UniProtKB/TrEMBL annotation:
<protein>
    <recommendedName>
        <fullName>Mannosylglycerate hydrolase MGH1-like glycoside hydrolase domain-containing protein</fullName>
    </recommendedName>
</protein>
<dbReference type="InterPro" id="IPR054491">
    <property type="entry name" value="MGH1-like_GH"/>
</dbReference>
<dbReference type="GO" id="GO:0004573">
    <property type="term" value="F:Glc3Man9GlcNAc2 oligosaccharide glucosidase activity"/>
</dbReference>
<dbReference type="Pfam" id="PF22422">
    <property type="entry name" value="MGH1-like_GH"/>
</dbReference>
<keyword id="KW-0378">Hydrolase</keyword>
<dbReference type="GO" id="GO:0009311">
    <property type="term" value="P:oligosaccharide metabolic process"/>
</dbReference>
<feature type="compositionally biased region" description="Basic and acidic residues">
    <location>
        <begin position="182"/>
        <end position="201"/>
    </location>
</feature>
<dbReference type="InterPro" id="IPR012341">
    <property type="entry name" value="6hp_glycosidase-like_sf"/>
</dbReference>
<dbReference type="GO" id="GO:0006487">
    <property type="term" value="P:protein N-linked glycosylation"/>
</dbReference>
<comment type="similarity">
    <text>Belongs to the glycosyl hydrolase 63 family.</text>
</comment>
<dbReference type="InterPro" id="IPR008928">
    <property type="entry name" value="6-hairpin_glycosidase_sf"/>
</dbReference>
<dbReference type="InterPro" id="IPR004888">
    <property type="entry name" value="Glycoside_hydrolase_63"/>
</dbReference>
<keyword id="KW-0326">Glycosidase</keyword>
<feature type="domain" description="Mannosylglycerate hydrolase MGH1-like glycoside hydrolase">
    <location>
        <begin position="18"/>
        <end position="420"/>
    </location>
</feature>
<feature type="region of interest" description="Disordered">
    <location>
        <begin position="179"/>
        <end position="201"/>
    </location>
</feature>
């Protein structure tokens, strides 16, 4: 199915529902593709990073001009990257969105390199990607440091990737929804309304994106200047944990290219310092979970999402925090190894839990892959192996669904989904994902 979703330069997540190139989808897809075709995995990342903006941001969508305009909303006519993003350095030769997604790309690039180092060196794969990855990280650590503490902020739920999570309900409640008559939701042509975000939530997404576009995609932390964080500005644990993980990977890339530990050791030190900041800013000992911080109120958001478990991927996490996270994953809120087959996207006991609706309860393969990676990293091998087996079973039984019911494994959303297939390949290879 990864061949069927291949456009010639990249892989679409879903031929019908998501017919363009998505940023973190492509990173996860490259991680799986490296086992079948290291060359194609390299092209996947090169295509995405070729659309990078001058300020360093990697857009969350790279649009395919061959796709009919009405096939996806919001499309290129909404984002207007070439005009609205001109000051931020939007590329002229390709149309993109103006927001970002989690920075998994350096991790993916390192793993793709390791799949065939000879091919990678012959094509100067890492040498060509390194400056783009470094600029991407620099953008997140400077222009997106809206809170001033060193963590990157997301300015839209789509940026964090877990679009419809109840973690966003509080900040989103400040946003007036766009007029429903001003846009048409193409996603409802391919998914049951009961599985998708509500019209009200979607109207808020559209409003936020339009406001960011109309201000020229200007960021609150640019040039070290603190500005009003806006209606939605959140420090998210998963987004920042993946940035830290990719910092470690970029350290390995620099050591490989430079043949010296000098610059790479500086990156590792930065990654460890950011881990300390993540714990100081987002760890809630009472809930034994990382939480999101609403920068508008400067308070933690009291909702338990799978985003709070993703920092398990960090090697320098304090042992007491790691142990508490594992207990939380196995406890009543997520049910890992007990009540659930896969880790749900939201608290099983939470008032907004829904096993069907997008990111409000269903289990996703990329977040479960990351949790399994973290469990293995910290020595929780039996639990990691059980999760791996459950993921393989669910992927096969659901025809590689976009997401599944965490209790039953029943498929939801799109089928033959890109990163589900790719990460299944990675799990079948039984290779540990280490940085």
């Amino acid at each position: 199915m990864l061949w069927a979703n291949w456009t010639g330069t990249s892989t679409v997540p879903s031929l019908a529902l998501y017919p363009h190139q998505w940023s973190w989808d492509s990173a996860f897809i490259a991680i799986g593709l490296r086992h079948l075709s290291p060359l194609r995995a390299q092209l996947e990342l090169e295509t995405l990073l070729a659309a990078q903006w001058g300020d360093g941001r990697v857009p969350h969508i790279v649009f395919n001009d061959a796709v009919p305009p009405g096939a996806y909303f919001p499309g290129p006519d909404f984002w207007r990257s070439a005009t609205a993003g001109r000051r931020a350095g939007a590329p002229g030769g390709v149309q993109t969105s103006g927001i970002v997604q989690p920075p998994v790309h350096a991790l993916a690039a390192w793993l793709v390199h390791r799949a065939d180092p000879g091919l990678s060196r012959a094509r100067s794969f890492l040498a060509r990607l390194r400056p783009r990855l470094a600029a991407w990280h620099r953008y997140l650590m400077t222009a997106r440091d809206a809170g001033g503490a060193g963590l990157a902020a997301v300015l839209h739920p789509w940026e964090q990737g877990m679009d419809n999570s109840p973690c966003w309900d509080g900040p989103l409640s400040r946003v007036e929804p766009a007029d429903p008559g001003a846009f048409r939701r193409a996603d409802l042509d391919h998914g049951a309304p009961g599985d998708r975000p509500t019209d009200t939530d979607y109207g808020r997404y559209v409003r936020l994106a339009a406001q960011y576009r109309d201000q020229g995609y200007e960021d609150a932390g640019r040039d070290g200047t603190r500005r009003d964080p806006g209606a939605f500005s959140v420090e998210d644990p998963a987004f920042n944990a993946l940035l830290i993980t990719s910092e470690y990977a970029l350290a390995l890339i620099e050591a490989e290219l430079d043949g010296t530990e000098c610059r790479s050791s500086e990156r590792r030190e930065r990654a460890r310092a950011l881990t300390d900041t993540l714990v100081a800013r987002l760890w809630d000992p009472a809930r034994a979970l990382f939480l999101c911080r609403d920068l508008r109120s400067d308070r933690l958001i009291a909702e338990r999402g799978v985003t709070g478990l993703i920092p398990l991927v960090l090697p320098a996490l304090p042992p007491a925090v790691t142990a508490a996270l594992v207990r939380t994953a196995r406890g009543p809120h997520f049910g890992l190894g007990g009540a659930t087959r896969l880790v749900p996207s939201y608290d099983l006991t939470g008032p907004a839990f829904d096993p069907r609706r997008y990111w409000r309860g269903p289990a996703w393969f990329n977040t479960n892959w990351l949790v399994a990676k973290g469990l293995r990293l910290h020595g929780e091998l039996p639990l990691a192996d059980r999760l791996r087996a459950a993921m393989l079973d669910a992927a096969d039984a659901s025809d590689f669904a976009e997401y599944v019911d965490p209790y039953t494994g029943a498929g939801r959303g799109a089928r033959r989904f890109g990163w589900t297939a790719a990460l299944t390949l990675d799990l079948l290879r039984k290779e540990e994902v280490r940085t």
